[in-house]
Amino acid sequence: MPMPPTAPAPEGRAGSPAANRTVITYAFWITMAGTTVPTPLYPLYQQAFGFSSLMVTVVFAVYAIGVVAGLLAFGRLSDQIGRRPVIALALLLAAVAAGMFLAADGLAWMLPARVLTGFSAALVTGSATAALLDLAAPGGRARAQSLAIGANMGGLACGTLLSGLLAQWAPSPLRLPWLVTLALTAVAAAGVAALPRGAHRTAALNLRPQALRVPAGIRPAFLRAALAAGSGFAVLGVLTSVTGLFLAQLLHLEDPALTGLVVFLAFACTALGQFAARALRPGPALATACGGLVLASALIAVALLDRSLAPLLAGACFNGLATGAAVGNGLAVINAGTPPERRGEVVSTFFAILYAMLSVPVIGVGLLIRASGLRTAGVTFSALVAALALIVAVSLLRGARGGGEPDGDPDGGRVR
User: Fold this and answer.
1) Start-to-end C-alpha separation, the chain
2) Which of 91, 252, 339, 409 has its CA at a distance of 20 to 30 angstroms from the CA of residue 44?
3) What angle do CA 166, 168, 169 make, to 5 degrees?
């Protein structure tokens, strides 16, 4: 889900650009797919290893912590050592994490595997997106960015769906999804190994954490976008971690394929929301996102109270669309109000906030589930998300009366 934290730099273009784009897009896709493979399997792991619902949310949350740490520590690495080595490193970490899940016999394996998964997602997102932009022909940046969004969100969506289908209808549900993931990752690694080397390093190697700063002129608009998008990320995190528990405990449906479908819809709609945001100015895009978040929260609450599947499916779709629109709004604000040489750190700040809002509420929901049960925890969380979205909407209205929002550029907020 994170976007590139650094501005792209040129690399060598030996070989067919179309073939290179295909390899990079596939590597991006399978790395992100690996991050959501555990989603439909959490109830099965819970039964096999005997841990609580709280620990399910912790296992998910440490992934987000890994993403944030990776963004801050390694966000500029592909500018320093080249795109191909960083993509290869991301694939290696993804493969190691998949191998750890394959061998897992308890939380001692799962927790570090999820941290490695977070690192792999952070590494591949910046490097693969920058590589696709490097390969873009003049005037082709929009297509390259679309490929990146498709690989990112498409991977997140397809990983959970593939895993759910395999767990539902194939043997060895806690092993086969990881064997398939490893095989697909190996194909990507072979393709990346055949990519041409970059033309040169663009900066000295420096692993100091990336600064988190926001220009004063865009701080109000930035904060509104970050809070709205972060609210949507929080819902995505809860859906990803506890949908299987909801289906099993409240609907008595132990159905990994259905779990995968719910989360697939959420992430697929997040991609659609990002594309849709390009057609709107930042103010209307964020207002629409806030309305969508309120509606999604209401639908999810209804699903919990009524023990019904249809509102959950609708809520997942509306939350995805709203989250994507809010992310697109945030990137448009950043692109319009930040100098090119500072966009990397501002985008990193944006996504660090989003992933913090993804991980902390998930653990909070886990604690609430332990204290009051799944339904009460879910309804309480939905009400908080709706309240935060309404606060952002009111703030947006006041900001518009006081002088308006900064406009996005014609590229819809793509980071350059």
Assistant:
1) 18
2) 91
3) 70
Cα separation of 358 and 71, whole Å? Answer: 15
Distance CA 405, CA 283 (A): 6
Q: How far is CA 302 from the centre of its chain?
A: 25
Count of C-beta atoms within a 10 Å radius of residue 171: 8
- Chain segment 370-399, per-residue pLDDT in tens: 899 999 999 999 999 999 999 998 888 776
Let me know if 92 is exposed, middle or buried by CB neighbors in 10 A (0-12, 13-18, 19+): middle
**Nearest residue to 1 (alpha-carbon basis) of 26, 45, 46, 33:** 33
For every residue of 279-307, which 3-state class applies, written as one string? CCCHHHHHHHHHHHHHHHHHHHHHHHHHC
Torsion of CA 314, 317, 321, 322, to 10 degrees: 50
How many CB atoms are located within 10 Å of the residue 310 CB?
11
For the record, the structure tokens of 401 come out as: 């009366």
Identify the residue with better confidence: 134 or 180.
Answer: 180
pLDDT per residue over 294-346, tens digit each?
999 999 999 999 999 999 999 999 999 999 999 888 888 887 787 766 666 77
CA dist 25 and 20 (Å) reads 8
What's phi and psi for 258, nearest 5 deg?
A: -65, -40
pTM (predicted TM-score): 0.86
pLDDT tens, 198-208?
Answer: 644 555 666 67
Taking Cα atoms as reference points, which of 184, 209, 9 lies closest to residue 122?
209
DSSP category for residue 415 = -
202 backbone dihedrals φ, ψ, rounded to 5°: -105, -10
User: Residues 130, 136, 140, 143: what is their CA dihedral angle, to the nearest 10 degrees?
Assistant: -60
- Range list of β-strands (E), 71-205: none
